[in-house]
Design brief:
Radius of gyration: 18 Å
Oligomer: single chain
Structural class: alpha/beta
CATH topology: Rossmann fold
Largest sheet: 7 strands, mixed
Distance between the termini: 18 Å
Number of strands: 7
CATH architecture: 3-Layer(aba) Sandwich
CATH class: Alpha Beta
Order of helices and strands: EHEHEEHEHHEHHHE
Strand content: 15-25%
Number of domains: 1
Shape: globular
Helix content: 25-40%
CATH superfamily: Vaccinia Virus protein VP39
Number of helices: 8
Length: 316
């Protein structure tokens, strides 16, 4: 399940995509399926090993288009090991709330994004997150947990301060907000409470069956209680040439990473998309909590689903 709407945040063959704070890798996997050259960056070695395994499983299952490639890399979001302008697209999904120096991370995001490139940044939405904090200290007072509650205005100001042009936004995962309120009320670590287990089963059913009534309810409630807010932004095209192709470095190398990777992609073709600023509606995914569960490999090469499957990113 995805938070970023790829119908609006366009990723295509040859695009160089950074999934910053990739966690279990859900957005990196989607970008790879679309033919991109993907780098999944995180500080968690365990997550990166599982992401690398999923990349390999996707290749084995025939889910990776010809010419696409992906690799995992360990790194610090505030000092990334890539040259300026290395990526056409940068995704930072549910990670900035975990970083003490969030402005430094946004500055780095803008630095590694090429002129004319696009960014998609998601954080827990203010109201659902505030309710969780009020209901339970255990929700956020955990190692690596959430350090702040963003308002959309604050996030947009900080992205603009980093030099990006802020575009559209939307909310996602409204049906998952009540699940976390319930978890906070009965005990975040209580996996056996009957109400929490019942709601969990409902969400798994919704994810697997995608009933129309649930999709409509999620869409209607998103502006009010969407668990995540997604903001899209663009880096201004280089003034010197007046185009988005002023500088296009080679795809960043992370071959010194100890994790296994797919074969290095060939130099990607020139980017052919518009320098759009995108808004959009949601593509839902279960908003979740702080312990990160990795994507699982296999012949079908599909990540885990359900409210616990992406616990890296939507709550602490």
């Amino acid at each position: 399940m995805l938070t970023v709407d790829f119908a609006r945040f366009r990723v295509g063959p040859g695009d160089r995509v950074l999934d910053l704070g990739c966690g279990a890798g859900r957005h990196a996997f989607e970008a790879l399926r679309r033919g991109a050259h993907v780098v999944a960056l995180d500080s968690d070695e365990g997550e990166l090993q599982q992401v690398t395994s999923m990349f390999a499983a996707m290749r084995e299952a025939g889910e990776v288009p010809h010419g696409a490639g992906a690799r995992a890399a360990a790194g610090d979001a505030t000092a990334m090991p890539f040259p300026d302008g290395s990526f056409d697209r940068v995704i930072a999904a549910e990670v900035l709330e975990h970083i003490p120096a969030d402005q430094a991370a946004m500055n780095e995001l803008a630095r590694v994004l090429r002129p004319g490139g696009l960014a998609a940044v998601t954080v827990p939405a203010w109201l659902p997150e505030r309710i969780c904090w009020k209901l339970s200290d255990d929700y956020h007072n955990v190692p690596g947990g959430h350090l702040r509650i963003f308002t959309r205005a604050e996030l947009e100001v900080k992205l603009a301060r980093a030099g990006l042009i802020v575009g559209g936004h939307h909310h996602a995962h409204a049906l998952h907000a009540p699940y976390w309120w319930l978890k906070c009320a009965v005990g975040v670590r209580d996996e056996d409470h009957p109400l929490a287990r019942a709601y969990h089963r409902l969400l798994v059913w919704e994810i697997m069956k995608k009933p129309a009534i649930m999709r409509l309810a999620d869409r209607a409630l998103n502006p009010l209680i969407g668990k995540s807010v997604v903001v899209y932004a663009a880096k201004p095209a280089a003034a010197a040439s007046g185009t988005a192709e002023a500088v296009r470095p080679a795809a960043p190398s992370v071959s010194d990473s100890p994790r296994a990777t797919l074969a290095s992609p060939a130099a990607p073709p020139a980017w052919s998309g518009d320098d759009e600023r995108t808004g959009g509606r949601l593509i839902g995914r279960p908003a979740a909590h702080s312990s990160r569960s990795g994507a699982r490999g296999g012949r079908r090469a599909r990540p885990a689903t359900g409210p616990q499957a992406e616990e890296a990113h939507a709550a602490p």
